[in-house]
Specification:
Length: 544
């Protein structure tokens, strides 16, 4: 996870302020990424005389895809708009490859305005201000991480904080390190009209550690007591151990987070000696001899709202299977096992249906060759990916699919920026299946306009279609998140894990469901109406 910008003592780009005043608020994400990349390449590296090492940059379409973060179908529009907006100029046009595969890439350079006038309006902008002043030392991570990876709305928020804080210089030559910004000021500067989207973008920028809220605003009818929120860029805290966590450190961090989560949810992760277990806090694995009423009396169900929960049922299924197949007769605490199944779903992001399928298969095949052994809920959670991989191999592994250009582009980017412990074929199949599933859901949302349902459902479905991220952007972000999780210890790395079976997109994923809820709330609609929209994507009501 991004942990803040480097303190601007080095590794900075001396960026013209017009990038924040003209380009960022008024142009598309493709233009912003392309111009930001040109500024980073041109002004991020200078020689001993202070001159740019690369005033003219030759770049191919494939480089724009990999290094700039623009999908191939959008490159032409982004280059055209950047040239028409007078941010860059084309020095040499590219030529397509011939039969021998030889072609020339186009060459571009930044466009500078020698008139000495600082223009802030797109209509009068003629190039970046060439004379001294009106520039800011911007951390390179802003261009390398934020601009290239985040949605345009988030980049606008981070850019606004940077421009309004360190982008202004006092008469004494000092720079602000924080700024009081009202919600309306953010809205005017970023030109994000929807207040819900603006609030969500500010919250995402805070959660991603790009900005820091130093003081919360106060909005009352008494004008003398009103005050705006105070923001600053999030600066990285430099320590002697500014490095990635080792395996032992990660496990300690994971245990700490689990303890915090358990305390928050009223559970306990401490092992209790056998003699300290009271009659009402454990159950021996003799479920078939206990009636339902006696089971209720013997089990301590302080986890969940009732006995009949998925986590409790999974605990009983695993306990019964261990007794029948492996003759494990030791007592177990049902609520503690249920906590592990809930953490597998909520903390590890595994869908409940997937957990049930793997669990049922494991109980059926436990003890057979090449099936990992787990004799507790914690062991099942830690070996879940290995067990699932054994299941997938038994059913024949990966089915080959036709890989699209978009999937190839995502795969190339992931291999360029992440350590992928799987083959390119596995990753390509996973990406393609995820793209197909995501686009299928989006198509179902589009088809709602042809159904005989309430107008509110039509309007919310149209808003969801316009608000959810593009398929390539969302799938790439999701898969990177999964890879980062799988690279952690005890997550099945190096065990021949079937990657495709794990990350194929589903609309039931908790992260995706939460995103739909946030979009619905920002639109001002109820979650009950969102449920109606989801129901329309699953069923086939009559068309108009």
């Amino acid at each position: 996870m991004f942990d803040g910008f480097n303190v601007p003592e080095s590794n900075t780009t001396y960026c013209p302020n017009q990038f924040f005043d003209v380009c960022l608020p008024n142009y598309s994400r493709g233009v912003v990424r392309l111009v930001g990349y040109m500024l980073r390449r041109t002004l991020g590296w200078c020689d001993s005389e202070g001159e740019p090492q690369e005033a003219q940059i030759q770049i191919s379409y494939s480089e724009i895809c990999e290094k700039v973060g623009i999908s191939r179908p959008r490159i032409k529009d982004a280059v055209r708009d950047a040239i028409h907006g007078r941010f860059i100029r084309c020095i040499k046009k590219g030529t397509p490859g011939n039969e021998d595969g030889q072609g020339n890439s186009a060459t571009y350079e930044l466009r500078w305005d020698k008139s000495g006038t600082y223009n802030k309006q797109p209509e009068t902008f003629r190039g970046f201000f060439e004379k001294s002043g009106n520039r800011t030392y911007i951390p390179n991570e802003f261009f390398d991480v934020c601009v290239r990876k985040e949605p345009l709305s988030v980049v606008k928020i981070v850019g606004a904080v940077a421009r309004l804080s360190i982008g202004f210089e006092t008469k004494q030559g000092h720079r602000r390190n924080k700024i009081a910004v009202s919600f309306s000021h953010f809205r005017r500067y970023s030109k994000i009209r929807n207040r819900g989207n603006l609030a969500a973008s500010i919250q995402r920028a805070i959660e991603k550690n790009y900005i820091l809220q130093l003081r919360e605003g106060n909005f009352t009818q008494n004008r003398t007591e009103q005050r705006a929120n105070v923001f600053s860029l999030k600066w990285r805290v430099v320590t002697k151990r500014n490095q990635k966590l080792s395996s032992a450190e990660y496990l300690a961090e994971r245990n700490r987070k689990e303890d915090e989560w358990l305390q928050k949810n009223g559970g306990s992760n401490k092992k209790v000696p056998e003699e300290q277990l009271q009659k009402g806090t454990r159950i021996e694995i003799k479920l078939e001899k206990l009636s339902r009423s006696k089971t209720r009396e013997k089990e301590e169900l302080n986890f969940g709202q009732s006995e009949d929960t998925t986590y409790i049922r999974n605990s009983k299924t695993l306990a019964r299977g261990l007794k029948e197949k492996r003759k494990v007769n030791r007592p177990f605490k049902c609520s503690t096992w249920a906590e592990q199944f809930e953490m597998l779903e909520r903390l590890d992001g595994v869908l409940s249906d997937r957990i049930s399928n793997v669990l049922n298969w494991y109980i059926e095949h436990i003890g057979k060759p090449f099936v990992p052994e787990a004799f507790s809920a914690r062991g099942f959670r830690n070996k879940f990916l290995q067990i699932e991989d054994a299941m997938m191999k038994r059913y024949g592994g990966i089915n080959p699919v036709e890989i699209s250009k978009d999937a190839e582009w995502i795969v190339d980017r992931i291999f360029a920026f992440e350590h992928v412990p799987f083959s390119k074929e596995q990753l390509s199949n996973a990406v393609q299946n995820s793209l197909d599933a995501y686009r299928a859901f989006r198509t179902k949302l589009l088809n709602i306009e042809n159904l005989q349902v309430e107008d509110r459902i039509h309007r919310l479905a149209a808003y969801l279609v316009a608000s959810i991220p593009q398929s390539c952007e969302y799938i790439e972000t999701w898969i990177r998140k999964v890879i980062q999780m799988l690279n952690r210890p005890n997550n099945g790395k190096g065990c021949g894990f079937n990657f495709q079976s794990y990350i194929t997109f589903s609309m039931d994923m908790p992260d995706f469901q939460e995103m739909l809820k946030q979009i619905t709330i920002s639109y001002g609609e109820t979650l009950e109406m969102l449920s109606e929209v989801i129901l329309c994507t699953q069923n086939e009501p009559k068309t108009r």
